[in-house]
Amino acid sequence: MSSTRREALAGMIAAGVAAAQTKEAVTRYVRFRAEKTVAYGVLNGETVSVLSGAPWTGAKLTGAKHKLPDVKLLMPCTPSKALAVITNYKSHLGNRPVPKVPGIFYKPISCLRDPGEPIVIPPEATDVHYEGEMVVVVGKRVQNAGLDQAREAIFGVTCGNDVSERQWQGGPERDLQWWRAKGADTFGPLGPMIVRGLDYAKLLLQTRLNGKVVQKQYTSDLIFDGPTVISFVSKFVTLLPGDVIYTGTPGSTSKMKDGDVVEVDIEGIGVLRSPVKAGS
Questions:
Q1: Confidence class of residue 21 from pLDDT cuts 50, 70 and 90?
Q2: DSSP states of 105-121 as a string?
Q3: What's the pLDDT at 22?
Q4: For residue 192, is the peptide bond before it cis, meaning its omega torsion is within 30 degrees of 0?
Q5: Helix or strand holding residue 50 (H, E)
Q6: How far apart are CA 65 and CA 43, in angstroms?
Q7: Cβ–Cβ under 8 Å, residues 195 and 28
Q8: Which residues of the chain form CATH 2.30.30.370?
Q9: In percent, how much of the chain has pLDDT > 90?
Q10: pTM to 2 decimals?
């Protein structure tokens, strides 16, 4: 990413942070690269204060600091697994019945993408859609959890884009599983930061395509909230610190093309911006 683009992205992030900080006291964690070093940090305005490790490990501030425009923001965690929920807003159901339990699928870790980096459309793909989503980040090992334990296991939330190739997902080229429809390389943008201490039960989620709002809904409209999803998943699969769950997308989606820019903007969290490029 060029220094000009990085400075513009940093300005956007800082503006979002400043606006959110006027509402409530929260902590914003980032993962970043400064020169050849990758580290976690706490973001305040345009200052990144370096942590000694991942924030859910009890890491301490080292005293080192960087200016936001001088670092490259990376996806804010390195999960052992990424899961996602299907049809978790009534506005996305269409004529389908309301599910009785969360519909869960895996996204391969290799599909996750740093904020600001492009979504690359495979040459064989013909109908790739955005899906703006809130993502919950697990902060402790959780197995067979009740709702209270599941709620305590949520470290924070971030933005995600569950990019989907509709023809591979359910069209005439449908695969048995969504291994490539939702798991192709770059199909999981994540970030730009993890926000802790935010009341994520009612946040405004908006997705913009080339500046136009194409999705808009509050997270209070989720059919299954974060604790419910984590409790359900943990009865079968043990979740580990740093694992992420994409909680589902609202409303309708549409095709992206080479040259587009998609932004997932969640109140109090920030903007996950991804240019779209055609693969070769």
A1: very low
A2: EEE-GGGEE-TTSPEEE
A3: 43
A4: yes
A5: strand 47-51
A6: 10
A7: yes
A8: 3-74
A9: 87
A10: 0.91
Q: Using one digit for the tens of pLDDT, what is the confidence trace for 37-66?
A: 999 999 999 999 999 999 999 999 999 999
Contact in structure between 76 and 193 (CB atoms under 8 Å):
yes
Q: Extract the runs of DSSP E, i.e. beta strands, from 123-211.
A: 128-129, 132-138, 154-161, 164-165, 188-196, 204-209
Q: How many CB atoms lie within 10 A of CB 9?
A: 20
Contact 249, 223 (CB under 8 A): no
CATH 3.90.850.10 residue ranges in the chain?
Answer: 82-278
Give the CATH number of domain 3-74; options: 3.40.920.10, 3.40.640.10, 1.10.510.10, 2.30.30.370.
2.30.30.370
Site of tokens 């204060």: 49
CATH class as words, domain 82-278: alpha beta
Three-class SS of residue 19?
A: helix
Instruction: State how far the Cα of 188 lies from the Cα of 215, in Å rounded to an integer.
Output: 18
Q: How deeply is 245 buried, as exposed, middle or buried, from its count of CB atoms within 10 A (0-12, 13-18, 19+)?
A: buried
Whole-number Å distance between alpha carbons of 230 and 146: 9
Q: Classify 73 as helix, strand or coil.
A: strand
Can you read off the two tokens belonging to residue 172? 């005439």
The beta strands (E) that lie in 145-226 are given as 154-161, 164-165, 188-196, 204-209, 212-218
Q: Which residue do the tokens 């959110």 mark?
A: 20
Check whether the bond before 172 is cis (ω within 30° of 0). Answer: no
